[in-house]
Amino acid sequence: THYSHPHDIKTNHSHRCPCSFIAGCYRIPQAPQARMAMEEHLFGIRWSQCHTCFTAVSTERRVSTISVFEADPTALISKFRLHGTVAIAQILLRTNIFALVGGGPNPLEASNKLLFYDVQEQKVVHYEVLPSTIHNVAFKSTKCVVVLESETVVFSFPGDPFPERIVTYGTCPNTHGIVGLSPSTTTDVLAVLGRQPGHLHLHNITTMSRTSKPVAIACAKHPLSIVAIDHPGRMVATTSEKGTVIRVFSCKTGQLLHNFRRGLTSSAITKLTFNRTSSMLALSGESKSIHVFHLKHPELNQPMALATLSSYLSSAASQHRAFSVLQIGYPSTCAFGRTPNTIVALCIDGAARTLRFDSHGNQHGAINAVRMFKPDESDIFRVDLDEWHRRNEERQTTLGALTSSIILDTQDRDAEAVSSSETYPLTTTPASTSTTVASP
Fold it and tell me: Taking a C-beta distance cutoff of 8 angstroms, is the pair 337, 330 a contact?
């Protein structure tokens, strides 16, 4: 069975992605507070572990279209279609391997069946049947983690010949698929929910021992909503369903390292993510803004206001507000861009926006936006990518070479770019024919 190296997708601007995992995903059906106007088409957006690319699943006439986008600068890499709808489509790094789980109006397969799909071979190369509905899938080059309602299952990956179940951890009810996995190839830190709501267990799955004692952390009084682990596996960030307080703990000892406050009112959080160097932490959600907290220099974060402290003195005395608050006007899910002090936000209006802030946390520069989907259908807008990449030539010259495993159709790599500072010309080239694959 063909299996390509984890860094084998070719992009037209040649970049070898760094490996950095963002736990969880932005799934519209499970986020009623941030529902899109076109939610009948767009089922979910999921970042790759390297968060230099992301996938979007759209549904039309009982057919799913899975599109892979470069994140920064945003451009369509490739897409394929399936006869059936899916709830999860998680790409492995930047390879041709996807983990698929059926869902939606015309499920491709049962919701407890995990499919390993090879885009290059255009077929399902392996599947696993789990005892209950699959709520999330986390990938890295050596592990595949599957989140069920009350269990988290770890598989070897790719395995010999294919994934082998290693260990299963029991959790409290976990319908939102909360999980964290360190992306580093030298550490295997797994964060799963504990038996009690608000508790988190950190496991070292390098030894793959069922009897090793986890690091147990009581993170919050309320059930957790988001968990993220930094790239080296040294820190884990959490927030509860209230979304007001963000806490960062040591993965090794469980000690509280940072205690931040987003705000005083509850808000649905869609993403917590560290930057590559673990010096900053970003948070996005339904509040139409993105909060960035400084970890390396916590003194740069804003202190709590005196009026706020008078009401929350006991709990807020040690908490700080965000170092930078970026206004985008839409609920979103975010990740750090390739360049320093850059955030890429995928917004619920179907556009990807790039935001920048300076060393003092002030937002500056125009917000560049690329529309991923038309407002009335799930097809992709078209632009002249040669012209688009010429405008980004200075940034692209710093990027490394990347070996190809999927030959991209040049007519299928386009996305509409709309910017507050410049507009990119649309082409009249018809959309290329996408591969349609029957249900296995």
Answer: no
- Residue 1 has a pLDDT of 36
Across the range 115-132, mean pLDDT stands at 92
Rounded to 10 degrees, the C-alpha dihedral 157/77/69/336 comes to 80
Query: CA separation (Å) from 87 to 21, 77, 110, 230, 370?
Result: 20, 21, 11, 26, 24
At 307 the three-state DSSP class reads helix
pLDDT by residue (tens digit) across 316-347? 556 889 999 999 988 889 999 998 999 999 98
- Strands in 92-188 per DSSP E: 97-102, 113-118, 123-129, 136-139, 143-147, 151-156, 165-170, 180-181
| pLDDT, tens digit, 9 for 90 and up, residues 68-120 | 999 988 889 999 999 999 999 999 888 899 999 998 888 999 999 999 999 99
Q: Please state, in angstroms and rounded to a whole number, the distance separating the CA atoms of residues 351 and 326.
A: 16
Grouping H, G, I as helix, E, B as strand and the rest as coil, residue 258 is strand
DSSP 298: G
Nearest in space to 97 (alpha carbons), one of 31, 5, 234, 197: 5
pLDDT of residue 407: 31
CA distance 355 to 236: 25
Show the CA angle centred on residue 352, arms to residues 348 and 353, nearest 5°. 110
Please state, in angstroms and as integers, the Cα–Cα distance from residue 173 to each residue in 145, 195, 321, 425, following that order.
Answer: 17, 8, 31, 49
Q: Report pLDDT for 49.
A: 86
Q: What whole-number distance in Å separates Cα of residue 66 and Cα of residue 297?
A: 40
Alpha-carbon span 295 to 279, nearest angstrom: 5
One DSSP character per residue, 271-286 reads EEEE-TTSSEEEEEET
> Is residue 364 classed exposed, middle or buried when 0-12, 13-18 and 19+ CB atoms within 10 A define those classes?
exposed
Bridge partner residues of 81 (DSSP): 65, 436
Q: Provide the 8-state DSSP code for 434.
A: P
The model's pTM: 0.75
Strand, helix or coil for residue 179: coil
User: Using an 8 Å Cβ cutoff, are 134 and 147 in contact?
Assistant: yes
